[in-house]
Design a protein that fits this description.
The protein is an alpha/beta fold. α3 (109-122) packs antiparallel against α4.
């Protein structure tokens, strides 16, 4: 038993009142005049009998009345009714869902949640079956439909809060699937969580099956205080010797009280760069800028740490800052190119900021095999592809992952002896110069090269005029990305091995079209090069729950080659994420916050790369919602009539109303005491 207002138990001191009444000392009021002693000194008479308690039943009656009235005002609450709703008779199938998301590590949330789960297990009776599930971003069933509690207790005691986010809907769907297969007459779910507002997507349909009872157990607090690191920001400036990095840390206080004079430190590759002090007001944020450091040739591991508070997990933030690399592009042209044949392409790539492009212009018959093998993107600009050893090197480079952009002008020929790379059969020239020219009539804006033009006022690709183009038939598996207004193929794409081939059926000069003179040409060329080179913006960090993607690892990958190599990935705690993960797969989820280490081989830590992983920002927001709203939303109408609405102390006390009985009992005892006290002098002898 507990009390809603335990401070009022101090009223039990009133027990002393009836005791003092019974022990009060009085002089005898009956005076007997006796003439012979009238001049003697008056001495107070005390009776030894009045120093002892004579009426024990009356005293106990009064003390019990005082105790009942004081206990009634303290509002008692019986334990054991907050875990299971006792509804219909018969055996039951019980599913216990225990939230082990990151936010459950706040204060004593986890200890209280674990105690609630233990109480639920202890409530099992003979014939009952229980399932224990832990949930955060994903759901893990620790034990299913067992009839003994020892294993469940052990699993609960071993569990700890993780780094995942709160997701209530998947947990309820998993529990519903288990209970739908149950044949027991009673089916119940106990959901133990802090009920973060961001953990419930109200748009998701998570209705419970008819007859299933849901009992939410909330461990949330009405007032919380939590300061966390929101993000890391980097100012970058190229200087001789590398890049000058100016880091800034954004600290967010999501609590109702100010966080004052908190220590904030920043370290780079394990070395503390600087330590500062920061104060943040309630529900506010602050940005702290640290002194710059140099980034030369290797990625840097950057960690920002805030002095721990009641939720220490979000007081650290990790990032891997990679050196900016330029994408190598090999532009091959014919022996006698036009004056502006490669001018527009070269200048468009020169203005690219992130990434930068290193463009090398060469004649097609003079390009060495080594240069083609090292290029990320190869451009055949109105020229016949190289033959012989150079042609085989070109085909091998594309097959291994290089991108190929082909401009099909009048100098382009493609025979059966040339590498099988073109996305279709090349036809004759279509001349529309006698008219105003053609335009693009269809564009697939879902393609990465064109998606930036899908938004309003982002550029008009149809404004360009096309006067000549080469006819191209693009059978499957080639993909037509754009067509002219007369139905001719404008852009076509084909996958060759691990590489991508993109064909433009006109030229990149100003003779066959004026596309190169339009504002859309530069962004179109940059997007096409990023797509062909499979360039991915280096992410300084990923989030817990993301899939491991080797291509997202900043810097050079430890495994050499474009494909087929294997590597070992170690989590921040040292456990292997998955042994021998291929560089082109993404099969394992990131479940810990910190730095993941990617090694070329299990013992090679010297050449390891690193991947930073952080908690989801929503886990730092401890704002909770009313569990009764969840019960109403997921409960089918007309069913689940025994569902407990909430398990806060106030609602549990209102549901029990024990204080009414205590108060009524105390008042009844006072009435009995009045009757007994009135009759006692006439019954007992003096």
């Amino acid at each position: 038993m507990t009390f809603l207002a335990p401070a009022l138990l101090a009223g039990l001191l009133a027990i002393a009142i009836p005791i003092l009444v019974h022990l009060v000392q009085r002089e005898r009021k009956t005076v007997v005049p006796f003439p012979s002693l009238m001049f003697l000194r008056k001495i107070p008479h005390q009776s030894v009998r009045r120093r002892a308690i004579r009426d024990w039943p009356l005293l106990l009656l009064r003390i019990l009345a005082v105790c009942l009235i004081v206990a009634a005002f303290a509002r008692p609450i019986l334990r054991g009714t907050d875990a299971v709703t006792m509804g219909a008779a018969g055996a039951r199938e019980l599913v216990i869902l225990l939230d082990r998301s990151c936010s459950m590590g706040y204060g004593d949330h986890w200890a209280r949640a674990r105690d609630a789960a233990v109480r639920a297990v202890k409530s099992l009776r003979p014939g009952d079956l229980a399932t224990l599930g832990f949930f955060s971003t994903n759901v893990e069933i620790a034990a299913r439909s067992v009839d003994e509690g020892a294993g469940l207790m052990a699993a609960i005691n071993r569990a700890t809060p993780g780094a995942g986010g709160t997701r209530l809907a998947p947990a309820l769907r998993a529990a519903s699937g288990i209970l739908e297969a149950s044949r027991l007459p009673r089916r119940e779910i106990i959901l133990i969580s802090d009920f973060q507002a961001g953990g419930w997507d109200r748009a998701q349909d998570s209705k419970l099956p008819p007859g299933v009872t849901l009992t939410p157990v909330s461990v949330a607090e009405t007032s919380t205080s939590n300061a966390a690191i929101g993000t890391l920001m980097f100012g970058r400036e190229f200087v001789p010797g590398g890049e000058r990095i100016t880091p800034s840390v954004r600290v967010v206080n999501r609590g109702a009280t100010a966080a004052t004079d908190r220590q904030l430190s920043l370290d780079v590759d394990g070395r503390v760069l600087e330590t500062r002090r920061v104060s943040i007001g309630a529900d506010a944020s602050a940005t702290v800028t640290f002194k710059p450091f140099m980034l030369a040739t290797q990625p840097a591991r950057v960690t920002a740490r805030l002095a721990p508070d009641r939720l220490a997990a979000d007081d650290a933030f990790f990032a891997v800052l990679a050196v900016r690399h330029r994408v190598p592009v090999l532009l091959m042209e014919s022996m006698n190119p036009a004056l502006d044949s490669s001018l527009y392409v070269s200048r468009a790539l020169a203005v690219g900021g992130e990434p930068g492009f290193d463009v090398q212009v060469m004649r097609a018959d003079q390009a060495p095999a080594a240069t083609m093998a090292s290029a990320a993107v190869i451009v055949l600009n109105d020229v016949r592809p190289p033959s012989g050893a150079a042609g085989r090197a070109l085909a091998e480079a594309v097959s291994n992952g290089a991108g190929l952009l082909v401009a099909l002008g009048e100098r382009t020929t493609w025979t059966k002896d040339d590498p099988d790379l073109l996305p279709g059969l090349l036809g004759p020239v279509v001349d529309r110069s006698g008219t105003r020219g053609g335009t693009l009539g269809f564009v697939d804006y879902s393609h990465p090269a064109f998606e930036i033009f899908s938004a309003p006022r982002s550029g008009d690709l149809t404004a360009a005029r096309i006067f000549k183009y080469r006819r191209l038939s693009a059978p499957a598996p080639a993909r037509v990305l754009a067509r002219f207004d007369d139905g001719g193929v404008a852009f076509a794409e084909r996958r060759v091995g691990r590489g991508i081939v993109l064909a433009w059926t006109s030229t990149f000069d100003s003779y066959w079209n004026d596309l190169t003179l339009k504002p859309v040409f530069v962004p179109l060329m940059l997007q096409a090069m990023k797509h062909l080179g499979r360039y991915a913006e280096p992410r300084p960090w990923q989030t817990v729950g993301d899939l491991f993607d080797p291509a997202a690892v900043p810097g050079d990958r430890p495994a050499s080659g474009r494909g087929g190599a294997r590597q070992t990935v170690l989590a921040p705690t040292g456990s292997a994420l998955q042994a021998n993960i291929r560089t082109d797969s993404a099969t394992s989820a990131l479940t810990e916050a910190g730095f993941y280490q990617i090694r070329p081989s299990p013992g090679d830590a010297l050449h390891a790369s690193y991947l930073a992983v952080n908690l989801a920002a929503a886990e730092s927001d401890l704002t909770s919602f009313e569990p009764a709203d969840l019960v109403t939303a997921v409960t089918a109408s007309g069913t689940n009539v025994d569902t407990a609405r909430s398990l806060t102390l106030d609602e549990r006390e209102r549901r029990q109303s024990l204080w009414w009985y205590l108060l009524a009992g105390g008042l009844c005892l006072l009435a009995v005491e009045a009757v007994v006290a009135g009759r006692l002098p006439r019954v007992l002898k003096p």
